[in-house]
Amino acid sequence: MEVDAPTTASSSSSPHFSRSPKRKLVEDVEMSATCSPSSSPLTEIDEEEKLSLAPLPAPILLLHLPAILIHPPNHQLHARSLCMSLLALRRCLKISGQSPDIECRALTSLAEVGMIVIDGGFAQQEQHVWAHGIETEVEDAISKGLMIAQKHPSLRIYRSQLTFLAAQLAAWQNNIKFARMLLRRLLTTYLPSDPPHIIYTAHLKFISHLITPIETQYKPTTMVSNASPVKLSQDVRQTMSAIQAMQKHACKYGHNEVVLLTRVLRLRQLVSSGLWDQVSEALAETEEALGLQFAGEQDTVDQSAGQSPRKGLRVTDLNTVHMNPPSPTKLSFSTKPSNTSDAQPSLTPVSEATPSFKMFHTYFERSMALHTLLIGVVFYTYVGRVSDATQRLSHLHALLDAGALRFDKKAVSTSTPSSSDASPTPNDSNTADAPQTEVTSQDTQEIDDAACGIVYIPLSESSPSLYVQTTHPRILYVLAFLVSCVAKKDPVGRRPKRKIFAIEGLSTWERELKKELHLPSFASMGDLEGIDTRLAKIKADLMCELVGVSIMRSEFNAAEQTLSVLIAHLRNADLFLSFSGRVTLHHAHLAHAQGQTDRAMQCYELAEALAGERGDDFVRISARAGRACLSIGLIRDKEYSRMGNKEEVKRELPKRKTREKSRERKVVDEDAMVVDGNTLVAEPEEWEDVQKLAEDVAEACRGMGGTMWSVGRVIEACLTEEILKSKQHLKSALSFASSAGDNHLRALILALIASHYFHTATDDALGMLGMCENLAAGLGATVKPPPGAKSKGKNGDAIGNAPLRTWVGDRSLEIHKRTGNGPAATKQEAANRALQTLIRNK
């Protein structure tokens, strides 16, 4: 009755007032509270609501609007959000009588938003009138903010951020020295009481301005994506010193995660600068810090120095490194589906004791481990140690299959999978039975940041964490396919891993492109364009690898089609100048393989010139090596033809039929073996020029990696007139090609070695010719249809390397006839005729 009485009284006192149900309920509650003093909770809630709904001061509201309004650059309202944010900050600064902290914070926010606008190039676009003159506005905001921060010691924290912005703006204005001077001076002003995350951020900013040469730092609106100048030695030294200074500071205060970050930075810089002789030691230190251990490294002995190859590895002296025995653990390859890709090959050990791969439980450690493993695979592939590269590639696949680049907001598993769990099926996760923990709001934010490539390093309980922007996960994921493709050099077999990874990498690239790209709200359009450019380069690299393996396997039609698609992709992405040397080199290799000597020579010369302009030493030396080898081959072929003509005159008339049959056996694929006689030069002066070119190439190949080192030794073997020296060069090149897993080059070296034993050791020559035949035939092996399936088209394998197989068949027949082995000669003649039939019907 007490509750209903006010309602009745209220309704009778206002018979003509029509109230809504919501308003009536509010009035009833207020009246009940008045009549019932004991209902204190209702009174407390009402007071809290009044306090929470109190209007914010205009400066505070305007200052916080950008954090709510700004959208990432891949959002359709990105430009509008920047415009509204600038408008809010400008109005905030127009309000008079503000406190210094509010004004300094508003100036800093205006400079930050303005830098995003500048990086997006909106100031140069006519339709964005609101962005015109933003550079001057940002400069004024930075200057005013620094003045306020210097006057008030309590605002000292803003000085670092404003200096970072000033340095970045100076770098975009091509004033690199001034930007570095600002950051170098800032590092000297820090006190031990300053927050450590700000000090480390200053170190990282300084390193980022040193890690890229001056020639490549441009203002984003005028940046040339094709620029790739050679790094200056002074920049490299300064970068190493800056990284060392940051590492010393981290060691002093016991920040082990920061020390790990500096080790990865140093390793990355060494590889980027081409200082390969220091990479081995830096890689060992980084792997030790991560706790990565690989089988067989402690047992591997350097024959030349008696030390571990990881401590004595020198790329300039690979003739001793390649003699190291392989790791004792033998790995077999098996292809299994995984969660991260539809068909991602994984590596499964054969040994009974299955080694377990270390998993990492923080996003920072996972990111550092992925970067270290990627660099390790590239390094050991470069120096030709396939066993060490395979172990790191296996660990890399295990991390990816376990979800190192998956950022699901689900319960977090605490299990540690072994190598047997490296390739879970899509319907059967490897963490299904593992204990799981609930995801908190902090974990959700951490997952969102990690999906954008942002990882954090906890420093201390009293200090904020250090947030680091690493390589975007999408780039890392697609890059793993490219590194796997490069590490698998062997093109022989029915399903060569190199081709599989290239095809799967391109398919994955297309799938990832259709997914939403996770970017932080403070990212700029320049950041988005940078990610797109890196992904476009990775796709071009994958297509280059596919072209290379197609040429090696004599799949010339596929190589031409892929080259056409590659050129179109490079044109669309505005990357053709960066890849012009490599594309021309691929055309040279394709023409060389098809016997088009004129076109091959022109493409080699053009590729050398283009690579020289771009500063790409590897492509330039590769083109020079191809030109030298082609010139030597043409001259030797001319000499062989002249010698053959002289012998024909001396032969007796009854042997003409034998000569006709011999010439029939030498008929090969016209597209692969036709040589233009006009290009055959055997003059002494021109041979001296070719010899000088070849000697320069052989010397330049030293220190250019395992493959080029072997190519240099092959060229030296062709130049020397001493048989013993030639055998030594070829055996050294063969040993290294075998340890590097390069069976394509190994087949050529076997053929050259066999030619030295035709008249001295026929059994050895036949054995090497047999291995060469198997490798050359394996270059045309195709996938067998499953049992019971109807095969489409022609049955059997392709020809493979037709010129090499023809040469091997002729030499084998010659040896059998000379040794008087009639049955073997008859069998070889039948095999040669069958091969010629396949070549004609090709």
Automatic annotation (TrEMBL):
Region Disordered, annotated ranges: 1-42, 295-351, 413-444, 645-665
InterPro entries in UniProt: MAU2 (IPR019440)
Compositional bias annotation for Polar residues: 33-42, 329-351, 431-444
Compartments reported by the entry: Nucleus
Keyword Cell division appears in the UniProt entry: yes
Record's signal peptide: none
One cellular component term from this protein's GO annotations in UniProt: nucleus
GO biological process terms held by the UniProt record: cell division; chromosome segregation; mitotic sister chromatid cohesion
Major subcellular site: nucleus
Assigned keywords, A-Z: Cell cycle, Cell division, Chromosome partition, Mitosis, Nucleus
Biased composition (Low complexity): 413-430
Entry-linked PANTHER family: MAU2 CHROMATID COHESION FACTOR HOMOLOG
Protein family per UniProt: Belongs to the SCC4/mau-2 family.
Protein name per its UniProtKB record: Uncharacterized protein
